């Protein structure tokens, strides 16, 4: 299929809808976590206010070009993932540039943002930046191993790397979903999912318990706003790719909202009931449980 310029405004409209919904769903998940901990939680509209406020701020502090490109690269990973996978299957307006992307490109975008933030953190000058980079890259690499094996398994199953064709193969019945036709691949992919969603117990490399360190305290003004935008968009973008590959995709916005919420809630549920892992514990977890399941998924196909 040739490139069509009309898809650009459609894609931008889709991005706007997803961003607004992502801000809402992030507030709901934060409120759920707060209620479990006996707190009230933030208002639903708080994320919108914080984002507008930070985008309006400017800073004269400089740490080098790569330090400020880090949030840009991070956000590019989330936006690219959305743009090159179908959001609503069968919709002319909301399939974006799905004909230009495939599973390999999607996996690249998932890892691209992490690499960008690693480069940005390395130029921050903070004495603990190297620790955060090593923690993050080690854990993300371990978490993506079962995901890569699951992707290899379903590419063998459907004999294609085209995401739209994989969604098409799952239409007609709920039992056509990869969840039922290849449950081992779905289980392996879910190990990678909870590991890359940056929620407890796999969020130690973000240093949420170390108040004076971590990216949220190193970045500020509009750069912090870019990180906030990515923090709400990127998890939803990853949820969309999982929805398309393993749960039949979405043929309307109602199904999209329901499936994205349900998948997102899986990571939140695990985060509120599990204690935080150390980095070596999380890496051992993915290698001990996720990796064997991914190998079994390939052997089963």
What is the topological layout?
Layout: H1 7-36, H2 46-56, H3 65-83, H4 103-122, H5 129-158, H6 163-169, H7 178-181, H8 183-196, H9 215-218, H10 221-246, H11 253-273, H12 279-300
Helix pairs in contact: 1-10, 1-11, 2-10, 3-4, 3-10, 4-5, 5-8, 5-12, 8-10, 8-12, 10-11
Distance between the terminal alpha carbons, to the nearest Å?
30 Å
Helix-strand pattern, N to C? Answer: HHHHHHHHHHHH
Number of domains: 1
Q: How many strand segments?
A: 0
Q: Give the number of helices.
A: 12
Largest beta-sheet details: none
Low-pLDDT stretches are none
**Could you say which structural class the secondary elements and strand pairing correspond to?**
mainly alpha
Taken as a percent bin, the fraction of beta residues is under 5%
**Global geometry:** globular
**Mean pLDDT, nearest integer?**
84
Helical residue percent? 55-70%
């Amino acid at each position: 299929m040739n490139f069509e310029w009309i898809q650009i405004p459609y894609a931008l409209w889709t991005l706007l809808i997803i961003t607004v919904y992502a801000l809402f769903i992030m507030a709901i998940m934060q409120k759920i976590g707060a209620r479990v901990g006996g707190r009230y939680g933030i208002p639903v509209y708080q994320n919108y206010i914080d984002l507008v406020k930070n985008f309006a701020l400017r800073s004269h502090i400089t740490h080098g070009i790569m330090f400020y490109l880090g949030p840009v690269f991070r956000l590019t990973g989330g936006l690219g993932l959305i743009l090159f996978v179908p959001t609503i299957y069968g919709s002319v307006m909301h399939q974006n540039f799905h004909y230009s992307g495939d599973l390999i490109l999607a996996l690249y975008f998932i890892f691209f943002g992490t690499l960008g933030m690693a480069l940005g953190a390395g130029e921050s000058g903070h004495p603990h930046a190297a620790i955060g980079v090593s923690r993050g890259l080690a854990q993300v690499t371990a978490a993506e191993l079962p995901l890569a094996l699951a992707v290899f398994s379903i590419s063998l199953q459907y004999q294609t790397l085209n995401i739209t064709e994989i969604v098409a193969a799952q239409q007609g019945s709920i039992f056509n979903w990869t969840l039922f036709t290849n449950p081992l691949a779905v289980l392996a992919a879910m190990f990678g999912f909870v590991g890359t969603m940056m929620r407890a117990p796999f969020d130690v490399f973000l240093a949420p318990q170390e108040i004076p360190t971590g990216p949220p305290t190193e970045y500020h003004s509009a750069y912090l706003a870019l990180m906030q935008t990515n923090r709400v968009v990127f998890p939803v973008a990853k949820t969309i790719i999982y929805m398309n590959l393993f749960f039949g995709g979405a043929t309307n916005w109602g199904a999209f909202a329901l499936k994205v919420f349900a998948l997102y809630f899986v990571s939140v549920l695990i985060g509120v009931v599990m204690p935080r892992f150390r980095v070596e514990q999380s890496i051992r977890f993915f290698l001990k449980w996720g990796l064997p399941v991914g190998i079994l998924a390939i052997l089963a196909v």
